[in-house]
From TrEMBL:
One of its GO terms (molecular function) is transition metal ion binding. It comes from Iodobacter fluviatilis. SUPFAM superfamilies: C-terminal domain of transcriptional repressors. InterPro entries: Fe-transptr_FeoA-like, FeoA, FeoA_core_dom, Transcriptional_repressor_C. This is FeoA domain.
Length: 98
């Protein structure tokens, strides 16, 4: 008899929890006005696609890609941004059987 284990991954999560190289869409951001304005100038706003391409060591910043722009964001700020994994990216993440 073979035992299997299925792990479900949430489709909606914070940007800080988004797996590497997974495309997601920004749903909301609870940031202070100054930071929100700076990030909007970089292209980060609600309904925009985003991807985490690298994580800093020991809780360091995240390197993000929005369109053709790449920038760094502190994890504490990334925890305030809610994202939804895009359908084409989540088909391999919904269920993992080991």
């Amino acid at each position: 008899m073979k035992l299997t284990k299925t792990v479900l991954i949430a489709k909606t999560m914070t940007l800080a929890d988004l797996p590497l190289n997974t495309s997601a869409r920004i749903l909301s951001a609870q940031l202070d006005a100054d930071l929100c304005q700076r990030l909007a100038a970089l292209g980060l706003h609600v309904q925009r696609d985003i991807e985490v391409i690298r994580r800093g060591m020991l809780g360091g910043p995240l390197q993000l890609r929005v369109g053709s722009t790449e920038f760094m964001l502190r994890r504490k700020d990334a925890r305030q941004i809610l994202v939804d994994i895009l359908p084409q990216a989540d088909s391999s993440l919904i269920a993992v059987t080991a």
